[in-house]
Amino acid sequence: MTTAVAALAAVSLAVTVLGLARRPLVRRLAARHLAHRPSETALIVLGAMFGAATITAALVVGDSFDASLRDIARTNFGPLDVMVTVTPPADVSRELHHIEDVVAHAGLPHVDGMMTAVTAGATLTLPSANEPDATPKVLPRSCVAEIEFASARHFGPDRSIGGFAAAGSTPTNDAAAVNERTAARLGAGVGDEITVHAVGTSWSARIDRVLPTVGLAGYCDILVAPGTLQTRAGQTAGSATPATRVATPPTGALLISLDGGVFNTDRYAKQVVRQLRALTRDDSKDLRLRTQVSAPKRDVIERATRTGDRLRTIFLGIGGFSIAAGILLLVNLVVMLAEERRRELGVLRALGLRRSGVVTAFVVEGSITAAVAAIVGTALGAALAGLVVAAARGIVADPGSSLRITTHAEWSTLVAAATSGYVVSMGP
């Protein structure tokens, strides 16, 4: 489909360029018709730009959702490509180091680096210091993690995509680091005390730094000192309250970075996941040890691609009626104008202008009009897509979600839309 559109556009442009360059009479006739009939020209441009505007709007909306979903791979994962999660009954660190040793000795291809982390689901609250009786700000469905900042800083091929380039040392004692997204949701800043509810207990943590929401810094909402979760879970295990007996224990995670950057590692992820599943299945003889291998970043990118393609199809299907209406309007306009020019065309033929010259003059004139309509329609379609994305942002906005929908258009998309609009306009 794309090749056919490009071929038709190339043929039309070739005829136009040759007519303008090699046939001065045709050039003068086309320029005279366009200059002496501005209202008719404007009417044709108005009818012709419907197709380009509709196609552009559909493609840009697809690009916007595609790019917005793909951006989660940058803000939440960065160099993290594959993850082996471990849920042992007791010592998370010991099992994590065992799995790391097994994977390291396996010599898997395309593995750029590895590091360990301990995570747990959490709810974060920020009490109101100025108004003790006010309702505290709550951030449910959060994540708390123990991460060694030195290891995170050297994890992956590029420090800039990990979020820890200027993070400093690992938090100690009751200190904690949060990312900018979490700080904005809670309205918290450096020095504030927040309450962490996780592993069946609660404790206060003091924010000592705010990290950019990118890479591993966006993987979890709050980062605490190593051993915090396991210590709290151990204290909880000794309690006899029903709430603590059903508390979810911390989960260990072996984080793996593959060769490449943020968006171009998916070609290796499937192979590495398959090898890791076979490796951990053979190694996990103890049924008490549960391991799960996943490629979260690849899943996000694939979901973004599917969503973008579906939205383009939906909007093109809906906009097909507008394109058809624009084509019918354009056909009527061309027929009407051709009827008005019948006498003029007869005079030109009587003066010796060949049929090919008359046809070429019409093609050149139509091509110029279609090109202008395609450019104007593309700009209008991009603006319309911006309004659609803004409306969608208000509908699907969720303070607890990582998705931030923004308008985005690739240059290749705009060129393809303008070319398609040009071909649609030249059809009649």
Low-confidence stretches: 242-246
Question: What's the overall average pLDDT, rounded?
Answer: 77
Total number of β-strand segments?
Answer: 9
Oligomerization status of the protein chains: single chain
**Most strands sheet:** 6 strands, mixed, barrel
Which outline best applies? elongated
What class do helices, strands and sheet pairing give? alpha+beta
Strand order of the largest sheet: 2-3-7-4-6-5
Number of domains: 2
User: Helix-strand pattern, N to C?
Assistant: HHHEHEEHEHEEEHHEHEHHHH
Portion in strands: 15-25%
Question: How far from one another are the termini?
Answer: 19 Å
Number of helices: 13
Q: Give the proportion of residues in helices.
A: 55-70%
Radius of gyration: 31 Å
How do the strands and helices of this protein lay out in sequence?
Blueprint: H1 2-22, H2 24-36, H3 38-77, E1 82-87, H4 92-106, E2 111-126, E3 137-146, H5 149-153, E4 175-179, H6 180-186, E5 193-198, E6 201-211, E7 222-224, H7 228-237, H8 242-245, E8 251-258, H9 266-283, E9 290-294, H10 296-340, H11 342-350, H12 355-396, H13 411-426
Parallel strand pairs: 3-7, 4-6
Antiparallel strand pairs: 1-8, 1-9, 2-3, 2-5, 2-8, 4-7, 5-6
Helix pairs in contact: 1-12, 1-13, 2-12, 3-10, 3-12, 3-13, 4-9, 12-13
